[in-house]
């Protein structure tokens, strides 16, 4: 018997209003998946012609995905605030609802032109507590990965589940307990940035490269998709570690990835699945945000690997 997202949400012991916010983000993701599938035929490719608040060139599909999310959110009276990578300011909706959504509507958009997996990431918070909340206060988090199949990964904090989009546009439960492997021999980092790395990152990666001939004592493999969603999905399915640490080039900005709609939701998901997350020096979910587009260092995945990186940071 198949379990649809609607069936599953109805069976959860969570506030039905919160469940409806998650259902709204799932519906937006299904629509984005449909647009992405036909984008090269419909001509939705290339740049939108403007930059977002972070100075990044927006792709046409970044803007389209953001509009799809905004339209769905406007339809749900439970949501009163939207924070998006693609919007300079938080949007305060006319709705009086108790929930806020923070989203990266299209993650990994530089991969669009080469037909490689991209995604939508979202975090759900209590709107009454303000815009700048710690990740540990998230009420739910999820992402959609638009790959060979469209996967929807969700957590309310206790466990992580995976749905797959079927031909009729419905999400069907395909994995009801995700557990991040405690140990792994796979790591993900952009090694082209090596000359900017700090001593901890250099030390950890050098051990991995040395494999069974070095102090790690086992062989490692490296994978870097360049879409955080795709890299994290691989780690949820078969273990590993994802790193976008602070380096000498990103220090002034605080890091590369954004706290509210990339680091926090992914950290909540990875931790709910038994993994760990850190900046190297503190837990991501403990950080107190200072701005809605704040950037932070991100290290998360299999507990043993994250602990090894923390060990390197503790040395200096
Ligand atoms: O281009 P780099 O430095 O490898 O960075 C890749 C990272 O940047 C991102 O693409 C940032 O996300 P956006 O595409 O939403 O801006 C992540 O998905 C990915 O992990
Ligand atoms: Mg992103
Ligand atoms: Mg994005």
What this model shows, in words?
With 316 residues, the protein is an alpha+beta fold. The chain folds into two domains: 5-175, Fructose-1,6-Bisphosphatase, subunit A, domain 1 (Fructose-1,6-Bisphosphatase, Chain A, domain 1, 2-Layer Sandwich); 186-315, D-Maltodextrin-Binding Protein, domain 2. The chain has helices spanning 5-11, 16-42, 60-74, 199-210, 228-238, 259-272, 303-315; strands at residues 47-51, 57-59, 79-84, 91-92, 99-107, 118-126, 140-146, 150-155, 160-165, 171-175, 186-188, 221-222, 241-244, 257-258, 276-278, 295-296, 298-301. The strands form four sheets. It has an eight-stranded mixed β-sheet with strand order 4-3-5-6-7-8-9-10, with helices on both faces. The radius of gyration is 19 Å and the shape is globular. Bound molecules: 1,6-di-O-phosphono-beta-D-fructofuranose (FBP) and magnesium ion (MG) (2 copies). One magnesium ion binds next to strand 5.
| Average pLDDT figure | 96
Name of the CATH first level of the largest domain? Alpha Beta
Which cofactors or ions or other ligands sit in this model? 1,6-di-O-phosphono-beta-D-fructofuranose, magnesium ion
Q: How is the largest sheet built, in terms of strand order? A: 4-3-5-6-7-8-9-10
Give the N-to-C terminal Cα separation: 54 Å
Indicate how many domains the architecture comprises.
2
What is the molecular shape?
globular
β-strand amount: 15-25%
The name of the CATH superfamily of the largest domain reads Fructose-1,6-Bisphosphatase, subunit A, domain 1
Helix content: 25-40%
Task: Name the poorly predicted regions.
Answer: none
Work out the radius of gyration.
19 Å
């Amino acid at each position: 018997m198949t379990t649809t997202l609607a069936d599953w949400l109805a069976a959860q012991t969570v506030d039905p209003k919160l469940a409806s916010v998650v259902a709204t983000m799932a519906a937006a993701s299904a629509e984005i998946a449909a647009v992405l599938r036909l984008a090269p035929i419909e001509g939705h490719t290339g740049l939108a012609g403007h930059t977002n608040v972070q100075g990044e060139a927006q792709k046409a599909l970044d803007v389209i995905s953001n509009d799809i999310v905004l339209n769905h959110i406007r339809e749900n009276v439970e949501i009163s605030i939207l924070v998006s990578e693609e919007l300079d300011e938080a949007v305060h909706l006319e709705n009086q609802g108790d929930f806020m959504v923070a989203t990266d509507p299209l993650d990994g958009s530089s991969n669009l032109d080469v037909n490689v997996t991209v995604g939508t990431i979202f975090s759900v918070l209590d709107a009454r507590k303000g815009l700048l909340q710690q990740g540990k206060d998230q009420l739910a988090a999820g992402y959609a990965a638009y790959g060979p199949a469209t996967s929807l990964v969700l957590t309310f904090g206790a466990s992580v589940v995976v749905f797959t989009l079927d031909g009729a546009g419905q999400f069907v439960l395909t994995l009801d307990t995700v557990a991040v492997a405690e140990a792994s021999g796979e790591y993900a980092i952009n090694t082209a940035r090596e000359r900017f790395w700090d001593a901890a990152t250099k030390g950890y990666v050098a051990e991995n490269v040395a494999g069974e001939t070095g102090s790690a004592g086992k062989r490692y493999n490296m994978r870097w998709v360049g879409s955080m969603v795709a890299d994290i999905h691989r780690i949820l399915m078969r273990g590993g570690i994802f790193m976008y640490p602070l380096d000498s080039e990103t220090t002034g900005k605080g890091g590369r990835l954004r706290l509210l709609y990339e680091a926090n939701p992914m950290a909540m998901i990875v931790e709910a699945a038994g993994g760990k997350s850190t900046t190297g020096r503190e837990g991501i979910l403990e950080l107190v945000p200072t701005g809605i587009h704040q950037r932070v260092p991100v290290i998360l995945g299999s507990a043993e690997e994250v602990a090894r990186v923390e060990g390197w940071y503790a040395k200096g």
